[in-house]
Amino acid sequence: MKLTSTQTYKLVYFVLENIEFTQLLAAKSAGISLGRANKIVKWLVQKRFAEKRNGKYYLSDPSGLAALFALERDMNSLL
């Protein structure tokens, strides 16, 4: 999963602001398709950044998810 892609970034940004969410709400708020949101949320669950409880998803490791952006971002342009 490429976190810096526009669609993924929009959804992850929404999730970081809204610790409790549904895939439909996340997709609508991020302006992406439900199918794409499904893939991203599944990845978040697989990597244990989020978990599903009572029909909703909860972000369980927001700081870990935010820290991944430093690994994905190309820092050479900032030198």
Features of the shown structure:
79 residues, three-stranded antiparallel beta sheet, 3 strands
Give a short overview.
It contains four helices and three strands, in the order αβααββα.
Describe the structure in your own words.
The protein is α+β, with helices and mostly antiparallel strands and 79 residues long. The chain is 56% helix and 13% strand. The protein has helices at residues 6-17, 23-30, 34-46, 62-72; strands at 20-21, 50-53, 56-59. A 3-stranded antiparallel sheet has the order 1-3-2. Strand 2 and strand 3 form a beta hairpin. Helix 1 (6-17) packs across helix 2 and helix 2 (23-30) packs across helix 3. It starts with 5 loop residues before the first helix and ends in a 7-residue tail after the last helix. The mean pLDDT is 86.
Order of helices and strands: HEHHEEH
Order of strands, main sheet, comes to: 1-3-2
Give the averaged pLDDT, no decimals.
86
Query: How would a textbook summarize the main sheet?
Result: 3 strands, antiparallel
List the topology elements.
Blueprint: H1 6-17, E1 20-21, H2 23-30, H3 34-46, E2 50-53, E3 56-59, H4 62-72
Antiparallel strand pairs: 1-3, 2-3
Helix pairs in contact: 1-2, 2-3
